[in-house]
Write a structure and sequence with these properties.
The chain has a single domain, classed as Ubiquitin-like (UB roll) (Roll), CATH 3.10.20. A five-stranded mixed beta sheet has the order 2-1-7-5-6. It is mainly beta and 102 residues long. The protein is built from one helix and seven strands; from the N terminus they run E-E-H-E-E-E-E-E.
Length: 102
């Protein structure tokens, strides 16, 4: 699959593996989550308001267009969070993120 970002330099860094929506994805150590995902995919996530594909916008943590989640429900800004080997991420908010009221 072709990604939105194309890596032009620094290809010699160590390789790490992330799991995005349960699918393993290879990236390079030192990448942000946004770079890791968008070098492999055309979009980062779908908008929670209309379903349109989103790829981030400002690339510096101000616009809040790059939110993704860990599998246990923690929200992360993909543009400023470093990719970590073995990270398990979701591009849609997991059901575990909503509290249950009884």
């Amino acid at each position: 699959m072709s990604g939105r970002f194309v890596r032009l330099a620094e290809a010699g860094r160590a390789t790490i593996t992330l799991f995005v929506d349960g699918v393993p994805m290879r990236s390079l150590a030192g990448d942000t989550l946004m770079t890791a995902i968008l070098t492999a995919r055309a979009s980062l996530r779908r908008s929670e308001f209309g379903g349109e594909r989103r790829a981030g916008f400002c690339l510096m943590g101000a616009c809040q267009d790059c939110w993704i989640w860990t599998e246990d429900g923690n929200r992360l800004r993909a543009c400023s969070t470093p990719a970590v080997d073995g990270a398990r991420l979701c591009t849609q908010q997991p059901a575990t993120a909503w509290p249950t009221l009884s």
